[in-house]
User: Fold these one by one.
Assistant:
Number 1:
Amino acid sequence: MVNYLQDFTILPKLTMLNWFFAILGAFLLGVGKAGIKGIGVVIVTLMAIVFGGKSSTGVLIPMMVFADILAVIYYHRHTQWKYLGKLLPTMIIGVLIGVWLGNDISDELFRRLMGALILVIVVIMIVMDKHTSTHIPQNSVFSNSMGLLSGFTSMIGNLAGSFSNIYFLAMRLPKNEFIGTAAWLFFIINVFKLPFHMIVWKTISIQSISINLILLPIIIFGFYTGIKLVKLINNQLYRKFIILVTAVGALLILFK
């Protein structure tokens, strides 16, 4: 299969291991968009290992938009628009800051910034797990801060999920409302990011689109697998596993 794919000149030369990581990343993207939260950092880590820091964002963004469409179709009736409205304006500002800063840094620095952001998010996830009863302020300063960080990390490395998750957890949203609101939020923000990837960063190309087309069926399979898993998964053990894998992945990105 790998040799067959490599016959197409528009495809980059990837090893069998790289194709495995790309396929696994696409599958996990579908699973994550179906409502299994916390694996976004693992997806970003896998894609960055295969395609490099900045280039991987261009490979991922069309796939994320496609997965967002699946999530919006399935969960749209659960969307809580008032919470989306509080987060979206500053998230857009964060994206614009990310476009400006990310356009002028090298791929090496970009990759290390991604790794550092991932490690920060891992620490936040660990703290939240250990202090589940800690009160999180639900005022405009909190929502604006989470929106700004979500937008910036979304543009720099498609890492916004962890910060938006913190916000939605603070709002005590039930599971389906959480997933439905996040689905619309990221569909809007990822579509907003597309022109910057194409025109400013130029991270979307014929090669990246060809990879996207190959991986779309894997995303669909992952999405429907994720729907089944939402009701079955042991959240506490799962989060501990994700935190461990995420930390290892961040170290791989930093020191690759």
Note: The mean pLDDT is 82.
Number 2:
Amino acid sequence: MPLLTTHEEAVAAAADLAAALAPGAAERDRNGADVIPTEALGLLDRSGLLAITVPEEDGGPGLGPSTLAEVTRLIAAADPAVAQVPQAHYLLVDILAVHAGHDLRKRLFADVLAGRRIGNALAERGGKHAQDLRTRLAGGRLDGVKYYTTGALTSAWIAVSALGEDGRLVLAFVARDAAGVTVDTDWDVIGQRATISGTATFTDVPVAYSFDYTSAYEVPQQLGARAQLVHAAIEVGIAGGALADARAYLRDKARPSTEAVRAGAGKAVEDPHVMYRYGRLATRVRAAEALLKEAARTLDGIGRVPADAATAAEGSLAVAAAKAFGSEVAVEAGSELFALCGTSSAAAKYDLDRHWRNARTHSVHDPVDWKYHHLAAWELSDVQPPNHGQL
């Protein structure tokens, strides 16, 4: 397994992976949960990219948020579903680095360095709110049902959130192939279909590794910001992928409209309205990329553990801006593509609608309106954002 020790090596590996993933992205989208994308995920697992954020003291390269954001953006431009699969993996590497004991770090980081992925089972359905969990860890045994388990189906380990016997939130790590673990392919959504983020069921599963997770958010933290940075990079990658496909279609396939011909345009790319719309969209995509880079640089300077609440707020707000704007631009790009390229671009054979479907599905992972709210609260009233895992 290659150990990617520099930013340049990681970005080059991501570019190579993106080039390998791009030709099959439309087919994986069409297949959805009917066909597990084992070949594509195997390329990811063997790329060395899973280990880029493992700390140096644990044998990894210890690369930072700027590297992670660029790696994710490049992969997402080719296939955002594959890019989302390791999102929780990178969060869990951060959690382990900050909160896990020596034995757990040694065990799991050795696997990560060997290309073995950590999946998540954090969310549930049916509760009154997102933190209304029914999964329980008692007597060293885990029982519960989870959904939105991105990456769990094909992972080596699964991190499961549960309530302990004292009512506090704990994080348990169980082997994917442990007795009592079942991960289903009941993932039926309009976008990000190849993530296969369906139901995971845990029935009397023995747990060897767990720790108190409530404490992670009782102090200033950057886990939420670092996790959201990857989500932001996925959105910005989707926007860039849609723009690239629009450019290719306009240059190679699109014909000018009758009105454009009457106005003197011999090609679709000479249509003045196409030129305006494309130029405007390209500018907004570049702006989203710039915000992403700025947010990543901010987190680079903070590190995994912020010095204080004000520093944590700085990181959270920088990422909030990038995520909110990037989500808007991704949805816009996925829709504007058709206004640019015309009726023929809507043919099912091109599957260009996947850009909008992926953006729309992923952008509602958590509400962007609250990100703008917290940005305004800080700018207008000096109110720091809340301390939680989605900001």
Note: Residues 223-381 form a domain with the Butyryl-CoA Dehydrogenase, subunit A; domain 3 fold (CATH 1.20.140.10).
